[in-house]
Amino acid sequence: MDKKAFRQKQLKKLQQHADQTAIESGVLLERLLASEVWQKAKTVGVTMSSPIEVNTKPIIKAALMFDKKIYLPKTMPNRQMAFLPYTGKENLEKSSFGVLEPEYNALLVASSLDLMIVPGIAFGTDTGYRVGFGGGYYDRYLKDFKGATIALVPSVMNFSETFWETGDYDIQIQNLITV
After folding, report:
1. Rounded to whole angstroms, how far apart are CA atoms 10 and 111?
2. Is the pLDDT of residue 97 over 90?
3. Which residue of 9, 47, 86, 130 has the fewest CB atoms within a 10 Å radius of its CB?
4. Does the domain formed by 3-178 have CATH 3.30.1330.60?
């Protein structure tokens, strides 16, 4: 299926099922915290979630409780991203996409992270491929990423088969946590 058409259809579906995703977020958080990849990680990349996504605020809170360092993405020109330390919600600004991001400071950019919690709107559990929001930011970043990747997949984003088109630029997610 054409990825662009599927993305539009899926975004509408996610809005209709936002309450279910919110309910499932707790189960996904528990499974994340119990995972070996989470327990080993000292540095974690994660986004500030939107209402249609798994809530990442409890993930950030849990990471800070366990002395993990949290890094948030900052969108950059040419569809690039840099990950910067999370230092509190008061130090975030809204991007042109409406997502809260840290202010850019070249001296604070993470050179490597142990774990990346990758967002998306659909995940194929047969392959680990995902459909994102359409900018290609994560696939570009993950191309050279050396840490572990994981995604939290509520039922509305879970597809047993990857039926959408994939390309050489698409990056597979190593670990999918489902409900």
Report:
1. 34
2. no
3. 9
4. no
Give every CB contact of residue 82 below 8 A, 6+ residues apart in sequence: 73, 74, 76, 104, 109, 110
- Contact, 20 vs 52, CB < 8 A? no
How many CB atoms lie under 10 A from the CB of residue 91?
Answer: 13
Residue 2 pLDDT > 90, yes or no? Answer: no
Q: Read off the pLDDT of residues 116-147 as tens digits, 9 standing for 90 and up.
A: 999 999 999 999 999 999 989 999 999 999 99
| pLDDT, mean over the chain | 96
Q: What is the pLDDT of residue 178?
A: 98
Q: Domain residues of the chain, as ranges? A: 3-178
- Strands ordered across the beta sheet of 148-153: 80-85, 69-76, 43-45, 115-117, 148-153, 175-178
What residues pair up with 56 in beta bridges, in sequence order?
none
Of 113, 89, 111, 114, the C-alpha closest to 102 is 89
Element (H, E) at 165: none
* Cα 24 to the center of its chain, rounded Å: 16
- Name residue 177's beta-bridge partners: 152
Nearest to 113 by CA among 84, 78, 76: 84
